[in-house]
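Practice record 12: protein with zinc ion.
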Amino acid sequence: MGQHGFFHHSGKMTLWGPAMVMLLALPLALIAGNLSAVLIYVFDWIAVKIVILFATIIGLSFAVYGLLRVGRIRNTTFALVVGFLVAILAWTSSWVALAQALIDGHPWLWHPGDLYAFAQTVAEQGRWQKGDQPIPALVTWSVWVIEALMFVSVITVLPWDYLRNSPYCEDCGRWLDANTSVGPFAPGGDPYAIRAEIERGNLSSLLYLGPAQDAPYWELQLRYCGLCENMYLANLVRLTLDDEGEHKRHKLIRNFYISRQQYDTLWDLDKPDKLKGQL
Ligand SMILES: [Zn+2]
């Protein structure tokens, strides 16, 4: 059997990849930061403001992840750096855009100290009102701090997390194909123990998973490189039902190597016996 254990990115990048990602991601951050600040300023309803903020954060995160994929970036440190730069740039430019909306003179470039002084003035005057009263500066600052933390943490972490869990075949120079789900199965033991077994190349706990009775279930997500057919990976996922009867998936063990033979065995696990061999 070939490789065992867990998939990790090689850390490699193409020569053009990082330049392309930076050239597109940074202007995008500027545009998104400005646009969201203007929209948040224009709309009066707090719910609309929050939706715009979330849409900006999620939109930028997926844009960064998409660019990393197109640029064939397999370096997770680079992914963190790009995400962080995009977050800081978008967040700062949203502040500059707000300052432009509120102040005559419209300066485009701000010294961070001046921007901070501007924020302080806005907070003291009361950025928002509750009834007829402006809300206290401390509350305004709290909202801004939460907003900033969300902006920076999500846009830094989300693309990085998606990238590190997106396997790449170095032999073929391509991302692996989409998942095939197998299951549901009855939980087959302690995930920590199974994880330790997988690390040693022993998949026996998974090869004999049986049909499920009740939630929570287990599910296997299988994927492989369709070009070389030489790289096979699996995720072990826990499925629970929420109050509305919707499935919620939580990955217990991510991206472990399986052999071609193990892929076939696992793929067969949820198929009726008479179908096995024919498919
Ligand atoms: Zn391949």
